[in-house]
Amino acid sequence: MGKTIGKTKQSAAKAKASNTMKISAAEAKTSQTITEYLADAPETPMPLNLKPMLATLVNAPFDDENWLYEVKWDGYRALAFISDGEVELQSRNRKSFNEKFYSIHSLLQSWTINVVLDGEIMVLKKNGTSDFSALQNWRSEADGELVFYVFDILWLEGRSLMELPLSKRLELLRQVLPTNDDRIRQSKVFDASGTEFFNAAQKMGLEGIIAKRKDSSYLPDFRSKDWLKIKVNQRQEVVIGGFTNNEGSSKLFSSLLLGVFENNKFRYVGKVGTGFSDKLQKEMMAAFKPFIVPDSPFEQTPDYNKPSRFRPNPPKANATWLKPELVCEVSFAEVTSDGVFRHPSFEGMRDDKKAREVVRETAEHTLEVIDDEAAIVKQKMISAPRITRKSLLNPKDETQVREVCGRTLKFTNLSKLYWPKEGITKRDMFNYYYQVAEFILPYLKDRPQSLNRFPNGINGNSFYQKNVKDKAPEWVKTFPYVTSDGEHKEFLVGTDEASLLWMASLGCIEMNPWFSKVKSPDNPDYCIIDLDPDKNTFEQVVEAALVVKRVLDALDVPCYCKTSGSTGMHIYIPLAAKYTYDQSQMFGRLIANIVHKQIPDFTSVERMIANRKGKMYLDFLQNRPGATIAGPYSLRPKPGATVSMPLHWDEVKPGLSMCDFTIHNSLDRLKSEGDLFKGVLGEGIDLEAAVKKAKSLFS
Q1: What's the whole-number average pLDDT of the chain?
Q2: What CATH number has the domain spanning 3-193+204-214?
């Protein structure tokens, strides 16, 4: 997200003040309908990092009065985040379209509405249909008329609209969408016969139609059966795994070798040799070069010289293999019994989609989808946001008693200001941890905790407590441990929501778990590189994180990053408790030294602060028994009530800020993104192989 949008400028106070619309009369038609609809919409900060709702492919059109129909446009799906004149225009995978489609971005900047929109960017032909090839090659207005067709509105002036029925969202969109420029239009919706609409789309040469249930809510990043797509022609995204050159051919390549991912395996689906101009081939060959690899990426190397009944004597061809990361779209006649596309034709590259998300699309039977009401209800339950809890504590009583996991907990002094400047109370902290429990507990469960207590909020005195012997309730689990200086302590062990909230009741604003569990206390589940800046900018922290990522990518080592919630970032490498702390620290030291050599101007591996000379510390020494850092989804005792938030790696870029994720917007983010950090607790790396490869590549 952009810097301004990422900070979510709509504060809680502003959201509460937005009971009425703040939209220029010149741009939007206000009405009683808007006020009525918004009354049913909850107040929330602008949702960040959304991925759009997706439609399920079905095999035939249908008629049903409970459904609406619209054109399936052939373009790039785009979400627009507009806040106080700042605009982020993003692809379905959160890639920025700001520069690529600058004319749409510039137009949105002139709006005074604060809103999140979902739609499709395309280039229109003279007959009003979309031209995907022209969109691929679009560089300026001289290349065609660029249009943003908007078909949904997700958030408006401090209120989330995603739980409203589609019919109400469309009415709100109609009333607030500015109409002073034809480059941004509301996609027309037809309350008519689906079969007749499909037949008309077929005659016009459209890609297909979309059917949407009138009462459907908006479910980000979910392929719903409340939205259906019916295609006129068979088309789908595929991943390029290589290209061939026919002997004697003067072309740069003769065909592309295509695949899709099925059960994490890259499977061959055929080759395409039509649909390329000479200019396009030159551009594609330039794009291929960084991805050339020596071996076939397919699960089974395809027989690309295999004759067919259409070409019994094909010319001999040689293959060049590519790392399967480039996505394109093809149309085809049908799929053969062995899963290969027949008569495919290249339609264009799809840099708005991730290769790993490309799977074989199989159309479901329409009647089974729309007639099975029980399945629809079940599907809605599955697709509902995971965070469904309301607040644990009411907003009035100063002392409250609650049963949590069968334990009686007493919560007192609930109006005490823990973040005085922001007006955030002890009650707010309890409610946050209650709602985020299912996400944070996997990183606390069965781990000793170091209690960092702030009984009077972030501006009061604080202290660490590691020994809870004779100080905790009988039901609290503890772990006896002799520290490096010979002290016998009993650490509190995270177990469930009751233990989480009991820690919070002690004034533990942040949660600090060990890297290892009680069953294997000397074997950490992960190695951490802690980017600890001194006189550095946060953009330098981001740059250092990306260098760490590049180094680990070169070693084929997975890694996961999160904001610290303070000034730095944390990068986790899964170990699955297979190695000792000494081995983990050794690996952390190796990575830190490699990274430091690449960016020595502003990083340091010196332990002594005085020797760092104001540079960022690449801290690998945290990888030791008993050491802790704030866990994922933990609040931090910092201004703004920031949260240590896991990130997608494509979010780690200039403009990211430690203030992006706070007690106000983190729950909303988790509704849309889920737990991005679960891979940290997954299969551990092969440490010996990683060290060996590091020495061969970086020594």
Answers
A1: 87
A2: 3.30.470.30
